[in-house]
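Consider a protein example.
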Amino acid sequence: MSTVVSMRKQLYSWFKKNGRHDLPWRQTQDPYKILISEVMLQQTQVSRVHLRWEKWIAKWPNINSLASASRKEVIQEWAGLGYNRRSVNLHRTVQELVLSHKGQVPINETILQRLPGIGPYTAAAITCFTENQKTQPIDTNISRLITRAFLGLQSPNDSTKKIIQQALIAFEPNQNFRKHYLALMDLGALVCQSRAPSCHVCPWQNNCSWFQDGKTPTTTPKKHLQPFSESARFARGRIIDYLREKPAMTTEEIQHFLPDNHKKQTAHYLEVLVTEGLIEKKDDNWSLPN
């Protein structure tokens, strides 16, 4: 048995026993429901998305129902998921699907990437996980897993992107692409983690180039990052949260509630939020858009 075939067999055996099969969006191949999950998961932890996805689908079970909702309702429902602009892009996407695609999600990577907020990974994931198409939904977990197992490096970088894709294509089966990529994703997320990989329980111990070379995660000095509470994204998020609670606020009221280090930038934050389609102004009051 070739190494590739053996590794695939090991992967699927591990996935059958240990995969995240209970995630609700894995119980369906409905393109709309998978679209919602993939947008929610773009920059939010799985544990936070789990219950929110179920609530969202209960409220808006299909494209037409979500497209008919007001933008304000959508932004309100997005509370707690972070990166509020994703909610606006999602709403614009479903409205575009109703307008130009007969209310259907096109299972085509090129077409999907023309929709607001959908990049290469999300387009590949939707086509693979709904129609089992042969695409490469390469997330950070898969990139790290393939980099270690096949390239013998601790983590991917810009120079390894094409090599990772080539390795993935060579490792692909002839069918069951959905199961294949979900299994890779879970092995990367649950075992081959960034800082503390559980190599002792990995099914690829005997074939992983990185592990076989006796390598272990190296701790690199953390970059001095600006505290999130000092970032513009934090302040803009706070403004949206205020307007979720209070339907209309003046600039002065918003400025009053913002932390002192953000007060001078209030006008700029409001301008950015208008550009992103997250707020609007009527007379002297700011509010979520209708």
